Amino acid sequence: MNNKINNYLLSNFFKTLLNCILLAVGLGLILNLFEEVEFFKNSNESLFLPILLTLSYIPNLIFINLMPFIIFISAMWFFVSIKHNNELLTLKVFGYSNIKIISLISILAFIWGIFILLVINPVTADMVKYYEKTKSNYSTDTDHLITINRNGVWIKERKGSDLYIINSNRLENNYLINVSINIISNGNYVKQRIESKKANIQFNKWILEKPKIFKFDGSDNISTEQREKLEFNSFYNVEKLNNLFRNLDTISFVDLLTENKKLVNRGYEKITVSEKINSFFALPFFLSLMVILAGVFTINNRNTNNINYLMIAVLSCAIIYYMKDLSVALGKSDRISPEISVWIPVIIISLINGIGLLQINEK
User: Contact, 229 vs 248, CB < 8 A?
Assistant: First the structure.
């Protein structure tokens, strides 16, 4: 009998969750499609490409970034439904306490979070990678481009009639390591090459340490010059490069775990990678806690007005969203460890849930 009741509760909650996911996907498709159409308005592309890019972008947004809020609303919808239909009283007759019902749904949310990390996330990461690669091909700023791959960091800049192709093995803190700068003239020949073991790119005015300069006059004559330091003005600095590196949505949870050291060697900040891994680890716990929070707000509330429940859901999502943003901001400003900043919302919600569950248990 208990198995049938468990299956009934879990299947009904999962149906509610799927309905909320479909609703979120629909809203996301509509809103993001306008942005993609605006991006391609000056190109000759048909509507198919903006739709395809929207379909590539939305899954990561829904299943990774917004899933805690979606599952919170789904849980509130589910708990309010069984409460208004008097199913809650019927379940109590069969020995199901409020805490048992909430625990059952929260365990399903935890398992759902693990499923997202291991099955859905690898797919969404590839879709985001396709999304970014496709949009970069249509970027109008072709004079300033950057690529990060297994061969290091590649930067293209144009200054006047000269083209600058910059290559570096990796990025370490504020430095590019083993830098090579090729200056190509309007006549498509290399007129100068600068090589340096290290370049400080903290600001747009780079400082190249002990650079060796090769000058070509178009014939076989090559002159070399060695300096202690050389200033080089660039469109990019370490902040802009780090913003590109920080987009770890293109890398799945499994790849982050298995290729952690490789990513750091390629230039990804160790702290940023660690922060992203911790955020993935926190996801199942976050989903489970959001279900418990929804149960505390609904089952523990004697109000039967659906509008009040809607206001509670919207207000709670807004507070939690800004609490997460504040926690991340504190991590980025080095007020607290970036890894700890990921877990602070989880800890705060856990404390709130603990107080709420004690009140439910007393009833």
Answer: no
